[in-house]
Specification:
Blueprint: H1 3-17, H2 21-37, H3 44-69, H4 77-91, H5 97-122, H6 127-145, H7 155-162, H8 167-183, H9 186-196, H10 198-203, H11 208-234, H12 245-255, H13 267-287, H14 291-315
Length: about 325
Amino acid sequence: MTTSSSLLYWRIQNVRNRGLWWLFAVVAAFIALYVYLFPGLLSVGGISKFTQSWFPLALVSMAQAVLMLAGGISLSIGATVSLGGVIAATLLAGPLGIVGGTALVLLVGAATGLASGWIVVRLHLPAIVVTLAASFIIAGWALLIMPRPGGAVPVWFSDLLAGDTPVALGLLVLVVVLWKLYLATPLGLSLYAAGENPVGAYRSGAPVDRSRIAAYGLSGLMCAAAGLFVAAQTGAGDPVIGNAFTLNSIAAAVLGGVGFLGGRGTMRGALAGSLLLSIMINVMFFLGLPPVAQYVAQGLIIVVAVALPEIAAMRRPRT
């Protein structure tokens, strides 16, 4: 990479990070408070347990951010997490084994996402309506497979993913690396353009429709992977365990500066938003706040974290 290209790259990254510095500062403050309340966080076991609780939310936040960057949104994320979990709890201990069961979980997640994406893009239907309908269908599918919590995940597999080693942190780093590689592909390069200016991107020859459909498939795959991880954590499947992830994924993406209209935001922002949500829950617990106070405090913190960059932008002199 030449010097001019390097300077241009870092200038673009600085522009994208402009609204995130406040979020990074708030996350850093909460991490410091969390370490003060729970010094064991800095140990290998502490990092392992925290990243295990954060990893599913981080995955679904990335899944939601992918769609929002492409100008879409999904209300079926929670249902897909539940479906991935019940399929994993049904198959991983069966004849297909870990490899076959994991492959099928990821395939089902990607297929459900691609189906929703095809309907949204090809039939020109609103994403919020299509994914809402998909959430009912997927949730019903999960209940048909497992009407009540049950199934099993091999103990050694649960110990691998949710044991005393930071495997979840390594998996998250791997997902981020794969995301960077995806952005270097034609579909990845078209993602921001498809969300920000689809007409202009189409006239420039970018595969806008394929990029948007692929975004839905990638989103579904990550949600199913999150469901598999949750099943490994709990050792069983639950057809409704993913319900809370839908709104939390939207909140994390918005906290991270990802815009609803597409083409604005970064994946690191969505990850930072999910990290803030996860840390808040733990800090509230260690502070001993009652549940009602926890909900109020979380709401206020989210509002402040979102408002700070907007206030800073209003105070910034216009050029």
